[in-house]
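[User] Once you have settled down, look closely at the record that follows, and write a paragraph about the fold.
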Amino acid sequence: MTAPPPPAHWHCCRWTGDRRTYDGESARRPPHLVVQDIPPQEWKQIAAASPAFMASDVPPLEVPHWLLRPVRTIKATFEAPDKASAWYRDQISDLSPSFLSDHDKDAVRQAERLTAAEDRLSWGGDVVGGWYLRGTGFASVQVVACSANRIRPTIPCPMR
């Protein structure tokens, strides 16, 4: 069995908000549970059938579903995995002072997380990070492989 080709690029998404908003699942899922791949046009129809899902900036429950969201939710796009990894690292550096737990702030733990992210991106995977912030905040940073995503290869690129 041959490995799938690498993705053409990665879309980077970041959301910071109240954890109660993050916990509300209705805006985080498209209106239909899809358990198998469907044609690209059907993905577009499913996403369009849920105005709440399409209007939301809150991270979807399934990482590749970011690709169904409007282009405005994309914070950056990179063709090279090392550039996507650097963006992810920069987001963690920016957020780290606000992390709620000392465990998440720990430099060794952060280095391990970044090494794992670099590895995952090098073979075409997605990277997901989520942290509770001081107060009632939550931050999510996600790097999503596109064209094609290994989990949902038929979801079309939002930028095309």
Summary: The chain has a mean pLDDT of 92. Residues 69 and 101 are 31 Å apart (CA to CA). The radius of gyration is 16 Å.
